[in-house]
Amino acid sequence: MNLKLCDIDLDAGILHIRNAKFYKDRKVVMAKSLVKHCRAYCESVHAFSDSGNSLFPCRDGQAYSYRAIHNIFRNLIRDAGIYYGGRGNGPRVHDLRHTFAVHCLKKWTFSRMDLLVMLPVLSAYLGHSDMNGTQHYLRLTADLYPYIQSVLNVEYDNIIPGLGGECIAKQ
């Protein structure tokens, strides 16, 4: 909402997020496709703008208010036929952040990337100060557990050798 033109570096593909959650600043690397869209957007909307102007201005040139963003989002989900569960039940704009994080974890899981290595990357990207906030998203990927278990069985089944002989089931 509060990004200014000076916060976007289209050459380096970096957004400078200022005064975000817990009043923290961070830099976020953008995908090349997003840089391309942002460049076209800036050429169209900001040909004569100052660096201090709002990146996404409303009609009066100022940044959108939280209420305006909320109303736009509600209209978009209504138009998409998505049920709004009411206050506290969402979906909310912030749920897009959660969806992004869970999709990253799922993509990495299906790509067989090491989540112990990738979790700190996601944590830094989301601007978390510690891993606790990021680990929260792991519970949202519970539907992947059967897949993860099957991969582990194939990849690591022979790590612990058998004792040779039949298994005796406890009764």
Rg on CA atoms, Å: 22 Å
* Whole-number mean pLDDT: 84
| Through-space gap between termini | 62 Å
The number of distinct β-strands equals: 3
Largest sheet: 3 strands, antiparallel
Helix content: 40-55%
Poorly predicted spans: none
Estimated structural class? mainly alpha
- The number of distinct helices, counting runs of at least 4 residues, comes to 6
- What order do the helices and strands follow? EEEHHHHHH
What is the domain total for the residues? 3
Strand content: 5-15%
Widest sheet: strand ordering:
1-2-3
Shape: globular
In words, what does this structure look like?
This protein has 171 residues and is mainly alpha-helical. It folds into three domains: 5-58, no CATH class; 63-92, no CATH class; 95-156. Helices cover 43% and strands 6% of the residues. The chain has six helices and three strands. The radius of gyration is 22 Å and the shape is globular.
